[in-house]
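Design request, tokens follow.
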């Protein structure tokens, strides 16, 4: 049926490369050295919950697995839902490697259970000395990263200049999203 899909213009998205997440600790070092952005010790996985017992069971299993993992790593994990109905698994850990490993485990666990289409993004939070926030966002469906920097003073404004500076600093460190229209704002991310 592949030729039928080609004729009809249907394409199958390429699978995300979750191993790209393991480049985040190196990117964190680069961001601290070049821009003064330090890990906030927080990251989150965002996904659209599916209905049904199987999905709820998978989320419960992941929660139990994270609780056990947190005992070994010192990570704390919480879950929340935003106003758009997206579910967030939030991880706090001062060790960037443990943070990335836990986020990878959540993404991989959901993907292995057949819910890769539900995964939206993973968000890693950074802060500067003045309290400014920046996020490095991994788009699951694209397998790429992009920066998201809210503007100073609150509200829903972005600091596009700083986003481009972060992009420049991370060139070659992580696979960056080249299409700037896919740099979606993540207002109210719980990280």
């Amino acid at each position: 049926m592949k030729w039928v899909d080609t004729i009809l213009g249907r394409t199958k998205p390429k699978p995300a490369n979750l191993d790209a997440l393991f480049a985040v600790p190196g990117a964190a070092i680069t961001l601290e050295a070049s821009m003064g952005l330090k890990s906030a010790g927080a990251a989150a996985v965002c996904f659209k919950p599916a209905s049904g017992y199987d999905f709820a069971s998978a989320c419960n299993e992941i929660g139990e697995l994270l609780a056990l993992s947190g005992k070994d790593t010192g990570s704390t994990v919480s879950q929340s839902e935003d106003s758009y109905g997206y579910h967030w698994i939030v991880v706090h850990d001062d060790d960037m490697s443990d943070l990335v490993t836990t986020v990878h485990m959540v993404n991989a666990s959901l993907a292995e259970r057949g819910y890769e289409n539900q995964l939206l993004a993973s968000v890693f939070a950074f802060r500067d000395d003045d309290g400014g926030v920046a996020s490095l966002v991994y788009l699951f469906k694209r397998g790429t990263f992009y920066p998201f920097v809210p503007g100073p003073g609150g509200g829903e404004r972005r600091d596009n200049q700083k986003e481009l500076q972060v992009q420049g600093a991370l060139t070659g460190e992580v696979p960056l999203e080249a299409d700037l229209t896919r740099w979606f704002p993540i207002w109210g991310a719980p990280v």
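Comment from the thread starter after seeing the answer: thanks! The first helix runs from residue 2 to 8.
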